[in-house]
């Protein structure tokens, strides 16, 4: 909101102490590429947050991974705009989902002449960097992203395995019940546990 009085050109922005962004949309048909698909909206929301936050503010952003070079480039930039950043997987978030949250504390600002529209284009259109250059410039933030991604992958595998085990236990219990009541027509099983195992690469 711009406020100006007659005879002066003073403007004032109402800045926020907290900005939250849902960096995602329905990508369930291509969940393997969810991070890349959501990149433009994640960058746009981040540009808005850097424009709206007041010094010392907090930014929370939902994300889907750190595998893409473009994602890491953006996070490296944010690393210099806040006192502290971390990644969180809330307890109520589905374990089998790639969803995680970036939480940034203590906004210090991107600089006086920063332009959100220019920055967004730079983050979206920046040229690629080969893997050797990325490895040579790796930082503690890269280590944090790598370890968090591994923990998320293990959580996904454990969750899928738990679902498979539960379905298998239910199948065994149902078959035993059918054997005990053989006078009744045997029920059909609509869940093929082996198909789940194949799809989730748990065989």
Give a topology summary.
Elements: E1 16-21, H1 34-37, H2 39-52, E2 53-63, H3 69-79, E3 82-88, E4 100-107, H4 116-125, H5 131-136, H6 140-180, H7 193-199
Parallel strand pairs: 1-2
Antiparallel strand pairs: 2-4, 3-4
Question: What do these coordinates show?
Answer:
The protein has 203 residues and is an alpha+beta fold. It is 46% helix and 16% strand. The chain has helices at 34-37, 39-52, 69-79, 116-125, 131-136, 140-180, 193-199; strands at 16-21, 53-63, 82-88, 100-107. Strands 1-2-4-3 form a four-stranded mixed sheet, with helices on one face. Helix 2 (39-52) runs antiparallel to helix 4. The longest helix has 41 residues, at 140-180. Mean pLDDT is 76; it is low at 1-12.
* Oligomeric grouping of the chains: single chain
Helix-strand string? EHHEHEEHHHH
The outline comes out as elongated
Distance between the termini: 57 Å
Question: For the CA atoms, what is the radius of gyration?
Answer: 24 Å
Please tally the helical runs, counting DSSP H or I stretches of 4 or more residues.
7
Average pLDDT number = 76
Which structural category fits the helices and strands? alpha+beta
The description of the largest β-sheet is: 4 strands, mixed
Number of strands: 4
Estimate what percentage of residues fall within beta strands: 15-25%
Low-confidence stretches: 1-12
- Percentage of helical residues? 40-55%
How are strands sequenced across the largest beta sheet?
1-2-4-3
């Amino acid at each position: 909101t711009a406020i100006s009085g007659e005879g002066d050109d003073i403007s004032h922005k109402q800045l926020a102490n907290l900005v939250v962004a849902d960096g995602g949309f329905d990508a369930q048909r291509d969940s393997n590429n969810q991070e890349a698909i959501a990149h433009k909206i994640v960058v746009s929301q981040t540009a808005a947050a850097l424009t709206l936050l007041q010094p010392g503010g907090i930014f929370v952003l939902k994300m889907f991974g750190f595998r893409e070079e473009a994602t890491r480039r953006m996070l490296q930039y944010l690393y210099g705009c806040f006192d502290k950043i971390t990644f969180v997987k809330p307890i109520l978030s589905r374990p089998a989902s790639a969803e995680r949250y970036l939480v940034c504390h203590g906004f210090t600002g991107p600089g006086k002449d920063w332009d959100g529209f220019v920055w967004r284009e730079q983050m979206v259109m920046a040229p690629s960097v080969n893997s050797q250059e990325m490895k040579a410039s790796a930082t503690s933030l890269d280590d944090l992203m790598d370890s968090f991604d591994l923990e998320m992958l293990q959580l996904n595998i454990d969750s899928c395995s738990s679902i498979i085990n539960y379905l298998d236990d239910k199948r065994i219990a149902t078959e035993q019940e059918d054997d005990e009541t053989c006078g009744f027509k045997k029920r059909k099983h609509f869940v093929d546990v082996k198909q789940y195992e194949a799809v989730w690469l748990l065989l």
